[in-house]
Design goal:
With 375 residues, the protein is an alpha+beta fold. It is built from eight helices and 26 strands. α3 runs parallel beside α4 and α6 packs parallel to α8. The termini are close together.
Length: 375
Amino acid sequence: MKVEQLSLTDASWHDVVPTIKIKASIFLLFISPTFKGKKKLLTTLRKLHPDATIMGCSTAGEISGVKVNDDSVSLTAIELEKTAHTIEQVHINSMDESFNAGATLASKLKSGGLKHVLVLSDGLNVNGAELVDGLKNVLPNTSITGGLAGDSGNFQDTFIVANDTISNKIIVGIGFYGNDLKVGFSSKGGWDSFGIDRLVTKSDKNVLYELDGLPALELYKSFLGDNAKNLPSSGLLFPLSMRVNDHDIPVVRTILGVNEEDQSLTFAGNIPTGSYVRLMKANIDRLIDGAEDSAKGAFKISKENAELSILISCVGRRFVLKQLVEEEVEVVQDIVGKKSKITGFYSYGEIAPFGKFSPCELHNQTMTITTLSEC
């Protein structure tokens, strides 16, 4: 595997893209919503590399090397020397179709020798938990990682790139085939929970109506104090930890929207009736430690020095870390090594197993890492 990593701006990309030296099999593009030249960029990539697969999404921040940027494109050119791949996409009209969309995408990618699936999804019109369940239903024994597109924390419109298409309401996946590809993956958080467990007494998939028989939004606002007036964006700073059973590893759920009329909260993933949730808050040191633990987990699985490390971290982490945000990328580089090219983005949801023997899950507020190399 050969990898080139570039950070592009509207002013510079015309001069930089023609300098790519490798024969790219895949381009990964993580694109700021404010980047104006995305359509022309795709046209240029197709002209220079007519056989390459192109996949990407909008972001809430672009990771390129150890830098976190805005108004840019983190572009990664990958030349696969031993591994076959294919790209597929599905269209989704509403969140209710999320499970079927995941199952359909998985069915399109399912074939002999499938080693790994990398998936990117619209960040606002998809129920990420249902999407993951659909993928797992068809591919229960295949590792799956990826994330939900962002739009700089505005929660208005995200987009996906699938070859020459740029659109919302689509989900795209690349399937990698063969045993020459070495994949590592891990997802860790670092948030602290506080307060008491609250029973979910009324919900419908990813919409939460009641906690302990009380209106969910009213109760949630009582915890936030002055931060409540900035919902839903301030909800990124106070996610919920959720567990369905006592033995489950808790997953984190982040708010996507609020409804004052019915006092409900809409999350990126499901909050089942009968589950328990606790409020969470940030600890900067623990967030950075979580990124380091995720890198260690991915390396433990791959047992290889990664040629490419794909980092998908939650926009909520960026809001908390602020000017320290690059520290969570730097600690990852300390683990994967400076020879590994690093790309990624800040997302509205992360898709990965916690570790080697865990099922794939939708996460929020985690640093999710996928490492790729060929042996």
